[in-house]
Amino acid sequence: MFLYPSSIDLIFWEGIIIKHTFLLTEGEWAAAGFYYDHENHKVPVEGQTSITHHESVWIIEGYLKLMIENGDIFTNSYEINPIPEGKDYTCWKSYNPSLGKISGFFTIIADTIISQYFSACGSIQGCEVVLRINDQEYISRGTVFASNKKLSSWSVNLTRKNS
Fold first, then answer.
1. Over its length of 163 residues, how does the chain's per-residue pLDDT go in tens digits?
2. Which domain holds residue 122?
3. Is residue 131 part of a domain?
4. 155 within some domain
5. Cβ contacts of residue 103 below 8 Å, gap of 6+?
6. What's the CA dihedral at 109, 27, 158, 99 to 10 degrees?
7. What is the CATH number of the domain that holds 77?
8. Residue 106 · residue 119 · CB < 8 Å
9. What does residue 60 show for φ and ψ, rounded to 5 degrees?
10. What is the reported pTM?
């Protein structure tokens, strides 16, 4: 059973208190893992994500670099509405140079942050699941589709940098 206190920072789940340190707190995160293209070719990636909180908006800025010669760099910048009191979800918008303007939702379910997103015209859709391992580590898995065909997917470990 889930109980959401007045602050979403702490979640009580099956007798365990979970404090999300990704998204819900400011910080710098290193990313390392794999990118899979539309034909499922696997390429190592490294990157970074920065999360900052302002009163009316949270900002996530980050990138993933394909670790091959002349590897592409995928950048993203999110503007997130802070999670309202008593809720476990919020909406966000983003501009991604490869995909354009994207909108989505973050939903927090126990140890997991789920993001689903789409373009205004609906031709771009995707999801990402971010699983809390501990205060310093999360695992991110996601995929993006365009016109019902896979563009890419990823499997990345996120490690909190010391601040």
1. 333 444 455 555 555 566 788 999 999 999 999 999 999 999 999 999 999 999 999 999 999 999 999 999 999 999 999 998 888 899 999 988 888 899 999 999 888 999 999 998 889 999 999 999 999 999 999 999 999 999 999 999 999 998 5
2. 20-160
3. yes
4. yes
5. 91, 92, 93, 94, 117, 118, 119, 120
6. 80
7. 2.40.128.20
8. no
9. -120, 125
10. 0.88
